[in-house]
Amino acid sequence: MTELFSVEHKVIVITGATGVLGRSMVRHFAREGAKIVLLGRDRKVGDEQVGEVEREGGSAIFLATDVTDKAVVERNHADIMRTYGRIDVLINGAGGNMPGATIAPDQTLFDLDVVAMRRVVDLNLFGTVIPTLVFARAMVEQGSGSIINISSESALRPLTRVAGYGVAKAAVVNFTKYMCTELARKFGPGLRINAIAPGFFLTEQNRTLLTNPDGSLTPRAESILAHTPYGRFGEPEELLGTLQWLASDASKFVSGTVTVIDGGFDAFSI
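and the corresponding structure tokens:
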């Protein structure tokens, strides 16, 4: 690894760190020499991940959080500053969906559960906004920092059935672009914020939607892959190169962008 792409000794905070994609990020950046702060709800999984990092000679801490509760995130911030004294990178990976915020094939838009949709928007949008507002303070004081938001393909191309999640992730893209100007104009060009838009990756949250109990693909999954030029789902590790670039000085003149990682899904037409 050249110095240009190095994240060695950087303090990287990852929300949603105990999920499938988050776990891959933790392993990668720890092996690259970064100090990792895992934020999540599952303390058992988080502590196990910290143990794995430490056994390989890395440095990591787990902090239980609720990214929709600013007071909790403020306490996380205080704990991080006591432990590491700085925050160089924030990856806003927390997010998710719930059944009530989607529309089943036998339903119409009038069956949408507004309460569930609010919860999904709260988690995905405000679960990005709140950590950004809290952790960016350290970056402002340092005069440098990189924030990486995890958006989604559904933010760019509205997907059937996925109502609340797509709306929230589209808002994350808008927030990313908005914050680019806010940070750079008012606090200097050392602060940048970008987003990635993953296509379809198998996670615990979408596994039952995309695969049957025997592991075979559901009709929806088959439709997705038929519209993906690569003809397969993404692997979590295939997000890491872009994340490394955005976390490192290699992207220090890059801000307000959205990088699509989807095997060509967004480019496909028929």
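(Above: one complete record from the training split.) The chain has a mean pLDDT of 94.
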